[in-house]
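Backbone geometry tokens:
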Amino acid sequence: MEEDKSLPLRTGATQLVFGEGNADTQLYFLGEAPGYYEDREGRPFVGQAGKLLDQLIESIGFRRSDVYISNVVRFRPPANRDPEADEIAAFAPYVNEEINIISPKIIVTLGRFSMNKFLPEARISAVHGKVFKVDWNGKRQIVMPMYHPAAALRSTAILAAIKGDFQLIKKALADDTLEVVEKSQQENAQSSQLSLI
């Protein structure tokens, strides 16, 4: 990524913000894009939203160093705007390879942009905290959409929701029989065809 001059957002950013954490983890957290503090430090989730994420991770018995944390876009968008579809697509091969290497049991998406990578038609308000199995890259992957911690800092209702949702991560790690929503590639385009297993 450092050497790939075709990647967008490079010119306005201070530095590449790569993922970090335990490459042998079962838990992979995928956010949206670096913000001001991430751009300055070169690490994901180090601002106020990052501090909240650290607390949420600790609330389920892990430390930040036990999990892996990354973003769908690795350079800060100007003025912290949302990442655009073509920017997300440009970074996707690198994100996909990172996920392949880590091979986590559960991918926790933080915010709607990372959620849409796996559940393109979903609305985060309807699916947060649910456990999905999706066809992804030739295998069945567990994906758990969550609100972005930055949204939780702005809303006490979302903060309460994300705290409760995080407790489900522990259950999903421990219980392979947990109720999940099965999504095939066909169903990814037709969210109305969800079937509970």
In short: The chain is about 40% helix and 15% strand.
